[in-house]
């Protein structure tokens, strides 16, 4: 056999043949068992990742099995269509965006196929999320070692594509160090398992003489020709992630083809399965935080720490801390830090707590008396340690979209040098920031995996102007030269993609970049696998998501004023940084975001996906697949399953507030054509107006009796345009009527508070308000209550009827003004209505002084009793409870005051990690939402309630939460408000109205469907 010839390097062609996407989509639907989506909305949602780049895909395929992915690539090959494999879509260098057929493995191909605990290996499909995998492995005492900060939503396929690492790589190494074998597919259809290859195995492969054999022969030839140059030019550092892993082909790495393909960013093959090497879980951990005067000095201490073998060694600077303080992130954890302006977080782990602490003390003893001695905070409480670890993991979110500061961007967010040169690098990098005008009081912050020399940062590049983009390019080139001079890597875990692909010759030299091109040609000679990334790359200032030519529509006729985004809806839509926290499958730590994604697994039903559609709707580049602005049906459909829970307002690192965006969109979408609105917008949106009429006429019992008439319930739901489900019964007497009849009581020694009679408490659950009055009076407050028919406007806001909402809210503010001017507090019992006063009102009327007063002086019951009632002691209950915290309370008010109050009352309360209950105000009643609503509740909430002991109270302050518990399978359990629970300690509570099971929707909705518009107009006229 003659000498094997290597192919010429792949080059990028600019004259692409036109692909018949309609025929391509049709062929994919015919031949692939999976979801094939070439619609405008899907293409918009997948147009970018977490990077600075944007390319609209040809279409998206969600294969149900790895074999379906094989079939999809076969079809793409027939049409010459490029292919891109995508996991969680959180890549920061642009490798997950391309004009290609995108294979999204995350929805279906997420199985753990087998585990060999004795061999410490497992086989997984590429779409499995890292945290899900490790939860499934928990019983084995094993886990997959590398753990990026996105561990709650990143997939193993994406980790393999990027050669991910994370903080735990200090102990376990990069992904390439933890892969046994890969099953891969080339664009031409060659499919095989690969890993380390002995000479005997190589000979057996070669003997077959097939396409796989040809690949192996060429790879061996590539190794022989470039091996010496690889040894000479590849940085000998822990975090060399840039470039292809040609070093894996060397004899000392056993001709490891799987290792070669790790980190290839979907440019060489499609990974169908992976056999992972697992590590034992070290159950006991201790965290030591070392404080230093500056980040470079902290970095100087890293080599002195490393000999003590920590399992993680992270660095953060004071600018990251200040960023989090500005955004009120992790306040408890920040209080745990020692003195200093830069910190090393050093974690030790072992089989026993004593062993872990001993390791930590040995390190501290060694540092004592040296130049690296630091101020120390020693944490061995797992809860406190977890809180402090959030400071580090929140880096990307904390440094994005700081109020009043320029936006920051990735690009040079992932460089790495040898740990013993880290201090030198940080000093020179800081000088570079100053030279280019990027340095300021709050940034760029410097943090990262200091134990392995990897530095993360976000830089305030001006990516909006031609001069700014040109400066960005010059900085990238200078920074690349700096890292190359120090023998480092442009990427330490995020990959090269488009951000750094163009710069690779500066690090590796021309010969090795030629080798990269030839390697690409071995696997993908036609350059159809994620073209333009790593090899023959697009320029680093090409395909920018923003850029000098970005000119989005920027509507001026807004209802919400978007004060945190400079009054710009375009800036609000640009707020998402793509980190994908909204795609996590669990709601641990009390998080809520994103309930619709947790149920559907759809990118378009995540906060990120919806934000992408809104961004594309503004058509900043003139080529958006979503070209009809506010009238877009694609955007409306993506927003349809948004529960408006507001979870993203707090849980999203960039504080995307999709509930507000949805309301603004709906207001414009239906503007001038109200007849296109679903009937439920009127029946649910105008419910407060109808409830006021029912209450004024004292017709609650009559209306409720009518709902029990046989056959009427279904007619009511049809007329109302809502799901066939029960709506709570009207009270015979409203809270306001009860209070007028009863009058205030108590000493009023603490002063007067105004109890807000929200529609749901007033008209449906007045017993909650009655209990709250008793509790507040017992605490020494005199309670007053408006007698007028008022509303916060919540239901009009949530249905996007913002003109009406602003009118109603403005009237309410006028009615409350005198009380607010006297400094009086307003107590809200319904979390969603309280959140309107604390958040939405100020966003609608940011310059109104009375609205500002309303926001500052509105409190929850728990806040009143814990923060404004010095010396108050609640009644002793000595009980257990599980708490379903309302989404709006989580997002706006928080639950800390409730927790404190319950502890003082002797209530052992567990905050359920259940996320949204699924009813979410009007959402669960709207047509087509019942399945998602029930699935949200069944995910965690209902099973936990059914399993709760009979004497465990089910706390649910939200009317929606109590309604969902009442109607669905809660095992007969009912939710109680905090006020009701506290009132039990004061004696017999007021009698709670009996609630019928499955009475169907109140006839009020049927009547409202016919007369809501006229009734609402009359009410609004009287409101003037």
Q: Can you characterise this structure?
A:
There is one protein chain. With 1024 residues, the chain is an alpha/beta fold. It is built from 44 helices and 25 strands. The strands form 7 sheets. A 5-stranded antiparallel β-sheet has the order 5-6-10-8-9. Strands 15-12-14-13-17 form a 5-stranded antiparallel β-sheet, sandwiched between helices. A hairpin with a 5-residue loop joins strand 8 (179-185) and strand 9 (191-195). The longest helix is centred in the first third of the chain and has 23 residues, at 211-233. Residues 989-1024 have low confidence and may be disordered.
The global form is globular
Question: Rg from C-alpha positions?
Answer: 30 Å
What is the distance, rounded to the nearest whole angstrom, between the alpha carbons of the first and last residues?
94 Å
Query: Into which percent range does the helicity of residues fall?
Result: 40-55%
Q: pLDDT average, as an integer?
A: 92
Q: Biggest sheet, in brief?
A: 5 strands, antiparallel
Spatial order of the strands forming the largest sheet: 5-6-10-8-9
Give the strand content.
Answer: 5-15%
Helix-strand category: alpha/beta
| Number of strand elements | 25
Query: Helical region count?
Result: 44
What tags apply to this protein structure?
single chain; alpha/beta; 5-stranded antiparallel β-sheet; 44 helices; globular; disordered C terminus
Compact description:
The chain has 1024 residues and is an alpha/beta fold. It is built from 44 helices and 25 strands.
């Amino acid at each position: 056999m003659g000498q094997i010839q290597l192919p010429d390097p792949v080059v990028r062609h600019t004259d692409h043949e036109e692909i018949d996407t309609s025929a391509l989509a049709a062929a994919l639907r015919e031949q692939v068992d999976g979801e094939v989506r070439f619609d405008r909305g899907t293409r918009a949602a997948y147009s970018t990742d977490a990077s600075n780049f944007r390319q609209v895909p040809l279409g998206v395929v969600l294969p149900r099995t790895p074999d379906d992915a094989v079939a999809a690539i076969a079809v793409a090959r027939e049409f010459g269509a490029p292919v891109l494999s995508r996991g969680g879509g959180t890549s920061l260098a642009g490798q997950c965006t391309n004009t290609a057929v995108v294979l999204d493995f995350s929805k279906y191909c997420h199985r753990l196929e087998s585990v060999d605990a004795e061999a410490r290996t497992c086989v997984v499909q590429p779409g499995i999320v890292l945290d899900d995998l490790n939860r499934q492995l928990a019983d084995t005492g094993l886990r997959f070692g590398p753990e990026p900060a996105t561990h709650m939503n990143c997939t193993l396929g994406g980790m393999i594509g990027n050669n991910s690492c994370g903080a735990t790589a200090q102990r376990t190494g990069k992904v390439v160090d933890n892969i046994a074998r890969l099953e891969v597919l080339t664009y031409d259809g060659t499919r095989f398992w690969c890993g380390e290859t002995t000479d005997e195995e190589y000979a057996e492969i070669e003997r077959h003489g097939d396409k796989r054999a040809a690949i192996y022969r060429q790879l061996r030839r590539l190794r022989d020709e470039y091996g010496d140059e690889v040894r000479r030019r590849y940085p000998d550092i822990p975090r060399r992630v840039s470039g292809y892993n040609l070093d894996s082909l060397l004899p000392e790495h056993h001709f490891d083809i799987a290792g070669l393909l790790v980190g290839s960013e979907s440019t060489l093959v499609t990974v169908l399965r992976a056999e992972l090497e697992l590590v034992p879980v070290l159950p006991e951990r201790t965290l030591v935080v070392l404080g230093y005067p500056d980040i470079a000095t902290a970095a100087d201490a890293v080599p002195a720490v490393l000999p003590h073998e920590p399992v993680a060694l992270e660095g953060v600077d004071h600018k990251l801390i200040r960023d989090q303080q500005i955004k009120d992130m992790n306040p408890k954890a920040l209080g745990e830090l020692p003195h200093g302006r830069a910190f090393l977080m050093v974690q030790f782990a072992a089989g026993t707590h004593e062993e872990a602490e001993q390791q930590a003390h040995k390190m501290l003893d060694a540092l004592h008396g040296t130049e690296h001695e630091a101020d120390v905070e020693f944490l061995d409480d797992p809860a406190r340690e977890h809180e402090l670890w959030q400071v580090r993991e929140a880096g990307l979110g904390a440094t994005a979209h700081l109020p009043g500061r320029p936006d920051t961007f990735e690009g040079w967010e992932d460089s790495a040098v040898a740990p013993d040169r880290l201090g030198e690098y940080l000093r020179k990098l800081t000088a570079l920031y100053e030279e280019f005008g990027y340095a300021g009081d709050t940034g760029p912050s410097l943090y990262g995996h200091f134990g392995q020399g990897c530095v993360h940062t976000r830089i305030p590049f001006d990516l909006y102007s031609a001069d700014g983009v040109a400066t960005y390019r010059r900085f990238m080139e200078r920074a690349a030269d700096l890292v190359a001079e120090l023998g480092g890597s442009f990427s330490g875990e995020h990959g090269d993609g488009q951000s750094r692909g163009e710069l690779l010759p500066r690090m590796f030299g021309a010969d090795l970049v030629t080798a990269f091109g030839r390697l690409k040609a071995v696997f993908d000679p036609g350059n159809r696998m994620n073209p333009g990334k790593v090899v023959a790359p697009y320029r680093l200032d090409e395909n920018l998501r923003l850029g000098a030519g970005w000119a989005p529509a920027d509507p001026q006729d807004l209802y919400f004023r978007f004060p945190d985004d400079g009054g710009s809806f375009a800036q609000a839509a640009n707020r998402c940084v793509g980190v994908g926290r909204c795609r996590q499958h669990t709601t641990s730590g009390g998080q809520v975001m994103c309930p619709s994604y947790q149920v559907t697994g759809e990118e378009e039903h995540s906060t990120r996906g919806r934000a992408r559609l809104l961004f594309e709707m503004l058509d900043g580049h003139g080529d958006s697949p979503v070209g009809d602005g506010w009238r877009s049906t694609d955007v409306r459909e993506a927003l349809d399953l948004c529960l408006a829970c507001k979870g993203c307002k707090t849980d999203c690192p960039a504080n995307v507030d999709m509930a507000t965006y949805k309301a603004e969109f709906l207001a414009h979408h239906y503007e001038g054509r109200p007849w296109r609105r679903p009937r439920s917008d009127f029946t649910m949106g105008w419910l407060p107006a109808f409830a006021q009429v029912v209450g004024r006429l004292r017709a609650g019992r009559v209306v409720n009796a009518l709902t029990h008439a046989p056959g009427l319930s279904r007619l009511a739901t049809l007329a109302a345009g809502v799901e066939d489900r029960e709506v709570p019964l009207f009270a015979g007497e409203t809270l306001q009527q009860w209070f007028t009849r009863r009058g205030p009581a108590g000493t009023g020694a603490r002063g007067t508070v105004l109890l807000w009679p929200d529609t749901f408490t007033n008209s449906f659950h007045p017993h909650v308000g009655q209990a709250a009055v008793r509790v507040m009076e017992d605490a020494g407050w005199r309670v007053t209550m408006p007698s007028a028919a008022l509303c916060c406007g919540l239901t009009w806001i949530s249905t996007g009827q913002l003109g009406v909402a602003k009118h109603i809210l403005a009237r309410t503010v006028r009615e409350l003004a005198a009380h607010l001017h006297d400094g009086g507090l307003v107590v809200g019992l319904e979390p969603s209505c309280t959140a309107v006063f604390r958040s939405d009102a100020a966003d609608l009327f940011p310059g109104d002084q009375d609205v500002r007063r309303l926001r500052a002086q509105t409190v929850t019951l728990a806040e009143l009793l814990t923060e404004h009632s010095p010396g108050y002691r609640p009644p002793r209950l000595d009980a257990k409870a599980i708490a379903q915290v309302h989404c709006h309370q989580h997002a706006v008010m928080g639950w800390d005051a409730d927790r404190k109050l319950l502890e003082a009352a002797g209530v052992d309360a567990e905050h359920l990690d259940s996320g949204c209950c699924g009813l979410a105000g009007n959402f669960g009643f709207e047509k087509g939402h019942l399945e998602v609503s029930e699935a949200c509740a069944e995910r965690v909430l209902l099973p936990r309630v059914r399993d709760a002991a009979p004497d465990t109270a089910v706390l649910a302050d939200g009317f929606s939460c109590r309604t969902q518990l009442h109607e669905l399978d809660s095992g007969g359990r009912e939710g109680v408000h905090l006020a009701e629970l506290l009132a039990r300690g004061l004696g017999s509570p007021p009698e709670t109205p009996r609630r019928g099971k499955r009475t169907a929707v109140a006839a009020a909705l049927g009547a409202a469907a016919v007369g809501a518009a006229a009734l609402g107009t009359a009410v609004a006229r009287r409101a003037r």
